[in-house]
Give the backbone structure.
Amino acid sequence: MSRASDSPADSQSAGTRLSRVIVLGVLLAAAWLLWSGYFKPLILMFGAFSCAIVLITAYRMHLFDSDVFELRFISRLFRFWAWLGNEVVRSSLEVTRIVLNPKLPIKPTVVEIDSHCEHPVDLTILGNSITLTPGTLTLSIDNRRFTVHALTENGARDIAGGEMDRRVRALRSG
Amino acid sequence: MDQGLINFVLDIISWILLTAGAFFVLVGGVGALRMPNLYTRMHAASVTDTMGAALVLGGMMVQAGLSLATIKLAAILLFLLITSPTSSYALAHAALLAGIKPDAGRAADPEGHA
């Protein structure tokens, strides 16, 4: 996909927007055919219906107005997932230790951080990554300000350190 | 190599993954019961969502071997890891808007006398 300017899409980019719709439609149809493996008319109708709903929803979310996914994003994404997976395992074990400890040593803490991400997609990835990691939970996102609930002070410190914010930011614009 | 031996080793690996996954699902359940309020309960439940789901699905992938089923299981895991924090956020944010205090400690918990 071509790199679009950051300005809101208007009439000049109607063509590129259409091409993005077509690319996503073809990808969705291919995914459906590969995963279903059935070629009966009824099932194919269901598939076309599902693809159409996804395309309409994505269009209404203005997903085609700007280029969210570039090719170099993919390799970075896998590196980010490896790091995030490691974090999830580490904090899962920590929460497990806390749950199984008879004294239940928790110290619920609320921490606020200002993210350096700007794009809604980046903010969504950051918010979901925080929530996915056991022990930290995104409570609200208000104009780049994250309110995060942490089970322990350790978890709150990790969030306040801002490493996850830095890594998410580097994901698409590093 | 002996085919039977390979299958035996794969079965062992799969059992270990499934048992470990079941352990983390159990921990999530125990934690959800032991924690004092809504937000801390959600922390415990997220262990089930991440480690539990990943290990159980990983064990099933080992059982399925190199087949279309494994790709489908990987897709299920990927979608779970994207949708479960999204719904957790919806729940936590709704609770915040409903006025449940996030800094409620163990003592200040209105529902902890279960």
